[in-house]
Design brief:
The complex is a heterodimer of chains A (390) and B (355). Chain A has 390 residues and is an alpha/beta fold. In chain A, the strands form 2 sheets. Chain A has a 7-stranded mixed sheet, with helices on both faces. A two-stranded antiparallel sheet of chain A has the order 7-8. The termini of chain A are far apart. Chain B is globular, with a radius of gyration of 21 Å. The two termini of chain B are 24 Å apart. Chain B has 355 residues and is α/β, with parallel strands linked by helices. Chain B has 12 helices and 13 strands. Chain B has a 7-stranded parallel sheet with strand order 3-2-1-4-5-6-11, sandwiched between helices. Classes of the chains: A alpha/beta (390), B alpha/beta (355). The interface between A and B is large, with 41 and 50 residues.
């Protein structure tokens, strides 16, 4: 092939005088009498057949062996030819199809185990359900399927491997019926809420329905994920509706005051809102389970704040941690502190009469009781803790 | 109460017309008079049509002459549409209601007033509770458009109820009505070939099937229960879920661009993304229908998902390639049983035959 050299002049290699329309007779004679010349003398049916090999010619150039192959079978039977042609075409340059299939099966076995066909079918069924919208959400927008299969599955390894969360007193969470889990809040970003949700689900099989601040539902993406994950706005109407519906509801009454407090004030409980959570529990007569979380304070030690920028962006604070703006995205990796979650003994509210929620003094007293319980437990957990990271 | 005379406003539009017809078919109703500025577009059956404008006092004469004892007010419109500009729409909604209620107050024979309102009166915002009950107020006062009109209409109706305590006043706050034949801002939004959504938000939606709207109006006329009621199909659908069921592709746009797109679409007359629809498609809304069951005694035939399913089945899918591909792969794999817990498998298919 090397010696058949075509020198492009004028018409880009096409024989002719440069008009570009039709080569002259002389030029046609000069042109190499290869396949096309031979095909001309044959009937047009065979001419159409030669199209395939010519199209495949560039591929064949890389593999020197089958050079004569496409020309020879022309004389033989038609259907067999085309079948063989396709085969040779496919097997020519790339990886054979059979190998690909084997590789895929091996990979599937690797990912899904020996029962891979079954597993894959299950996974596909799940995927198709998601794609056709064939799933249910409850009235708050909670999508149990995606929460279990995706959100919790993503959070669990972080809880177990990164923070090594240790749960105590999980038996204090009621196995059924409405209950209100009240927790301290810390860590600059509400990671503690996510970990609590994952741990509650792992230990009781129940979903913790979080009550979130206004800001959560104002922000794009965050609001979407929050609703799908079972959260709703922290207002009396929603809290009572969920508790009356027999859900396990989680509330962090310190709110932004707790989560955005400076590192120097760690483990000092802030004011517990206005006690709205207590009146909701009193009205629906569900137990209040105090929860103390140790470890979350140290994940992003908040040492500074940019109030002007925070006001501009409409957020409560812009955190500055020893790592955060300085290391860029790397600074967003939380420090691997050791976490302890202790669920306290439930505080019963069903002994109070119907109008208890209308009595502000009683509401304040119960609020204080819950707050004190959490604070004392925090102190005792801190005493037991060997160090921040162990 | 036999031989009642019912006056229905807003019969030129399809929902008003079909409602008037279904009322005429009711045995306890002797006569149905349909009133509108324009003649109805379709067959009105036994309904007697009177061409009158509720914006001027002629309506009082109609009520007096025909000895009307029940008024069904359906003339609160969501879009200017054929009526013209926003000014006309407000005129029709607010001034029309005022005139109608003034006429009703003078009519001695009147015993019952049924007003079709909308859940848009609750607005939509990030500070909303998950489910609105009838006693809750919107978190932000509506300043423009349909929401403001509906709120004003309801205020006038409350005033009327105070001045005429002998009249049974039923206000029905209906969720977005949906059905194969319904033309409304929400249905034209879903009829777009490629559906824009607000980036990062996934609102909860509730729908009411058009046949359930007819049934509830008829039920309200015959039951005669005083009060305000939320009317909606059971359960909620997320917008993303609805679009997947429609098998139509969607384009997420940031909030500010979504509003701009609204005016562009409006000029092409493809859809009308009014400000209240934009907030609805951002934050969504849910209403509690406990009172509808307990006090009004009405049970919708279609859930939200079923009503939407019937609407979706009339639209050709314009997307769904991935799903078909997965389906082809799944066909080659062994059959698997549904591994979801039973709580998650409810709510599929299209049930509820319409009587």
């Amino acid at each position: 092939m090397g010696d058949a050299e075509i020198i492009p002049i004028g018409t880009r290699g096409r024989p002719g005088r440069g008009t570009g329309t039709r080569p002259s007779a002389a030029a046609r004679n000069l042109a190499p009498k290869g396949r096309s010349g031979g095909a001309k003398s044959e009937p047009p049916r065979a001419d159409a057949e030669t199209e395939t090999p010519t199209a495949a010619a560039p591929d064949e150039a890389a593999v020197p062996a089958p050079e004569t192959e496409p020309v020879v079978p022309l004389a033989s039977e038609q259907p067999a030819t085309s079948a063989r042609l396709e085969l040779s075409e496919r097997e020519g340059p790339g990886i054979p199809l059979g190998d690909l299939l084997n590789a895929f099966q091996a990979a599937a076995r690797e990912v899904f185990g020996e029962q891979w066909e079954h597993q894959l079918a299950h996974f596909l069924a799940f995927l198709r359900r998601r794609l056709t919208g064939d799933y249910v959400v409850d009235e708050f927008g909670f999508d149990a399927e995606i929460t279990e299969r995706f959100f919790l599955a993503a959070v669990r390894p972080i809880a177990e491997k990164w923070f090594r969360v240790e749960v105590r007193g999980a038996e204090n969470i009621p196995a059924e019926g409405g209950a209100l889990i009240v927790s301290n809040h810390s860590g600059t970003i509400p990671v503690d809420a996510l970990m609590t949700m994952a741990m509650v689900h792992d230990h009781t099989g129940r979903h913790l329905r979080a009550l979130g601040a206004d800001l959560v539902f104002k922000l794009p993406f965050v609001s979407k994920v929050a609703r799908k994950g079972g959260a709703t706005l922290a207002c009396n109407e929603d809290a009572e509706r969920m508790l009356a519906g027999g859900e396990l509801v989680g509330v962090w009454p310190e709110g932004f005051k707790g989560i955005g407090k400076p590192y120097s004030q760690r483990y000092k409980l802030q004011r517990f809102g206005r006690g709205g959570f207590v009146s909701a529990a009193l009205r629906t007569q569900v137990p209040i389970v105090p929860l103390s979380v140790v470890g979350a304070e140290e994940i992003y030690p908040l040492v500074g704040n940019v109030p002007a920028l925070a006001r501009l962006l409409g957020v409560p604070y812009i955190p500055i941690t020893p790592l955060f703006p300085w290391l860029g995205p790397l600074g967003m990796v939380p420090l691997p502190s050791k976490w302890l979650l202790e669920f306290g003994e439930p505080i019963r509210t069903d002994e109070y009469d119907d109008h208890a929620a209308e009595d502000p003094m009683l509401v304040f007293n119960v609020t204080d009781q819950v707050r004190e319980t959490i604070q004392q437990t925090l102190y005792s957990l801190l005493m037991q803790r060997q160090s921040v990271f162990k | 109460m036999s031989g009642r005379t019912v006056l229905v406003t807003g019969v030129s539009r399809d929902l008003g017309r079909t409602c008037a017809r279904s009322l005429a078919a009711d045995p306890s109703v002797a006569r149905v008079i349909g009133v509108d500025v324009m003649p109805p577009r379709g067959d009105i059956g036994d309904v007697q049509f009177v061409r009158a404008d509720i914006r001027n006092p002629v309506i009082a004469k109609v009520i007096a002459r025909e000895d009307v004892d029940t008024v069904v007010h359906m003339s609160v419109i969501a879009t200017p549409g054929s009526a013209g500009a926003r000014g006309t729409m407000k005129e029709l909604n607010v001034i029309g209601t005022m005139q109608l209620l003034a006429a009703c107050q003078k009519a001695e024979s009147l015993q019952q007033l049924v007003v079709k309102s909308t859940t848009t009166v609750y607005g939509a915002s990030s500070a909303d509770p998950a489910m609105f009950t009838e006693d809750m107020q919107p978190r932000g006062r509506a300043r423009t458009g349909y929401a403001k009109d509906a709120a004003e209409v309801e205020a006038y109706v409350r005033g009327f109820a105070r001045r005429r305590p002998d009249v049974t006043v039923t206000t029905l706050r209906c969720a977005n009505v949906i059905g194969p034949g319904v033309v409304s801002p929400v249905t034209s939004y879903f009829r777009l070939p490629v559906i824009p959504t607000v980036l990062g938000f996934d609102p909860r939606l509730q729908f009411l099937h058009e046949s359930d709207l007819n049934r509830v109006l008829r039920h309200a006329v015959t039951a005669g229960v005083h009060g305000t009621f939320n009317i909606a199909g059971d359960d909620v659908l997320m917008l993303s879920q609805a679009l997947r069921r429609l098998q139509r592709p969607s384009v997420p746009l940031p909030g500010f661009a979504f509003g701009g797109l609204g005016s562009a679409l409006k000029s092409t007359r493809l859809a009308d993304l009014s400000p209240e629809l934009v907030t609805f498609l951002t934050y969504g809304r849910g209403v509690d229908t406990t009172r509808m069951r307990a006090e009004l005694g009405f049970e919708p035939r279609y859930t939200t998902a079923e009503a939407f399913g019937e609407f979706a089945s009339t639209l050709p899918p314009t997307g769904g390639r991935t799903e078909r591909l997965l389906g082809a792969v799944a066909d080659r794999l062994p059959e698997v049983s549904d591994d979801r817990p039973p709580a998650l498998t409810a709510l599929t298919g299209t049930g509820g035959s319409d009587g």
